[in-house]
């Protein structure tokens, strides 16, 4: 007898990635490829909206990008401008209705929106808008922006969008598509990344620059915090729509989320991760025979650790890249089955060795414990765990799916207690100062709330101080909803 179980990894997950194209005859195909490069930012649903100059054409579905956008589907997404979105959602929230981009028909015309981030005052705004008669079709906080946009008295879309965004708080890297223009917006604190690129005469916008590389495009620059970039037949226009605020770029992009071949916040992710590994070796040296990364995210930091320490780097754990979200478990229980499904040790490299295991983070500690045990069972004489970020003690409220504070092992346990729990001979985390040095943060430009419990937005900090916040604040983005059709846009009424 077998049992089919869901596979859940012990990781943080970024909520989504966005990609847009203006001025290319194969806009939807380029958007598909851009989303393919951003698949690591979300694997549960994806969507593309294209414009042929008169109509917007939408296709969204549950699943991964290559499963959704078959050649016949892309044929039905005509036009030379398009935006796309790939989404990760929390457990139980897999409704197609919440997939993006959201497409609406309002007094500002036909508009599609794709959002990376999380609005911290979305629940408050939703209550106000519903009290005023607004009818919400999804549980997405992005729809709050839609209703605020529709109610704006501004005469043009950029003005209305500016009005809407100046009333919300939190993180948003946003793409907006009309029948004839593409607008890219980044929140004033710059929480989530967003970059501008070119391919010949066509413009592209993406969450990460690795999407431009796949298309042989050229990275031009970041969309600046508080900037709205409008791309139309008239050219490209930059609008600073919000007052300047202190930068709060997500430092975990450099630790884990972004692909190492991307440039994020003006810096190479690979360089940051190698620097983190070097810092680990300086701050927590150890006598050992080999340095082994926990693939894939631990690889650049392990390279840095090996280079700094002089201990040989070895790929002692092999990752199975083809694991799905469910699997058939044998009725005869296999020890560490879930982790073995994903990782397998090379015994000949590990047996008889003192091993340094390098990973990007410890969340609940359950996976780290299984990996340490698996390495020991492969014959390691010592296992030393090294983590390329500080202890994660607080959940994120700015577009990252994290456990509650109670589920984060470092929120209630010391490094010594965690070391004992995971069964390692020693455990070392990069210090917060070391992390900031590794990403060249000399001006305090990064958000480090998950390591400090101090949040940059007032509403979240107030709720945390009063003990009423949870990791699901802003669940307007991640709430439960039943599946809905993707055939028809949401209609938003304007109310004077």
Molecular structure report:
The chain is of the alpha+beta class and 496 residues long. It has two domains: 8-246 and 478-485, 4-Layer Sandwich (Glutamine Phosphoribosylpyrophosphate, subunit 1, domain 1); 264-455, Rossmann fold, CATH 3.40.50. Helix content is 27%, strand content 27%. The strands form eight sheets. Strands 5-4-6-3-12-11-13 form a seven-stranded antiparallel beta sheet. The chain has a seven-stranded mixed beta sheet with strand order 15-14-10-9-8-7-28, covered by helices on one side. Helix 4 crosses helix 5 (142-151) and helix 9 (269-283) crosses helix 10 (299-309). The N and C termini lie far apart (63 Å). The model is unreliable at 1-7 and 470-496 (pLDDT under 50).
Brief synopsis:
The protein has 496 residues and is α+β, with helices and mostly antiparallel strands. Helix content is 27%, strand content 27%.
Number of domains: 2
Strand order of the largest sheet: 5-4-6-3-12-11-13
Q: Give the total of beta strands.
A: 28
CATH superfamily of the largest domain: Aminohydrolase, N-terminal nucleophile (Ntn) domain
Shape: globular
Structural class: alpha+beta
Count helical runs: 17
Largest sheet: 7 strands, antiparallel
Poorly predicted runs are 1-7, 470-496
CATH architecture of the largest domain: 4-Layer Sandwich
| CATH level 3 topology of the largest domain | Glutamine Phosphoribosylpyrophosphate, subunit 1, domain 1
Kindly report how far apart the N and C termini lie.
63 Å
Q: Helical proportion? A: 25-40%
Strand fraction equals 25-35%
